[in-house]
Structures are given as structure tokens and as C-alpha cells.
Amino acid sequence: MAENIIDFSDIVDKEVYTEKGSFCGEIKDVEMELGKFAVRAVVVAAEKGSYLAEKVGGAKNVVIPYRMIESIDDIIIMKDFKTSQAEEASSAEEA
User: Fold this and answer.
1) CATH number at residue 71
2) What number of other Cβ atoms are within 10 A of residue 2's Cβ?
3) Model-level pTM?
4) Distance, CA of 70 to CA of 66 (rounded, Å)
5) Residue closest to 41 by CA, chosen among 74, 73, 16, 20
6) 5: left (phi over 0), alpha (psi -120 to 50) or beta
7) Do 56 and 50 form a contact (C-beta atoms < 8 A)?
8) Contact at 8 Å (CB) between 32 and 8?
9) For 20, which DSSP code?
10) Tell me, what's the pLDDT at 3?
């Protein structure tokens, strides 16, 4: 499970990789659930040609649910996902 984020600067501009080592992009923002003082999601700037850009069709900023974050340290590790999972997460976020 991902650790607690103490400060926004703890993760902004850190590189994001999948569990298998594929580069996804960098963290650009976080989405908070203020009522619970919890991080709801992170926004990853998917770089052209990266694993994440290929999975979601080249979108520049991709909202990743925080539950998909595995580890935060010098880099951020996120769970691998199938494209259908990305579409489901996106639909759930819009609702």
C-alpha cells in the first residue's frame, strides 16, 4: 500500500514507472478528498511515447486513482493496468 503523503512537494515532478519498469511520465498534481484529508488521485503528465501515453491514446495529463500507487520514494511505482481498466477509472472519476 502507498505511504502517506506529507507535502505536495513530496511527489510533484517525480517520475512514475509501472511495476514492470515502464516509464509513464511525471506527477504534476494531486486530487484531494478534503473531507477525509486524503489523496484521491494523482495527475501524471504522460510523455509522448511513454507506456501511459500509449495505453490511454496519447492524453497529456492522466488522472490515476491513488489506490493504484504502490510505492513513493525517489520514483513512484504504480500498478500495471489494462486499457479497459483505464477507461473504467476515467468513467468513475467523471461520475
Assistant:
1) 2.30.30.240
2) 17
3) 0.74
4) 9
5) 16
6) beta
7) no
8) no
9) T
10) 53
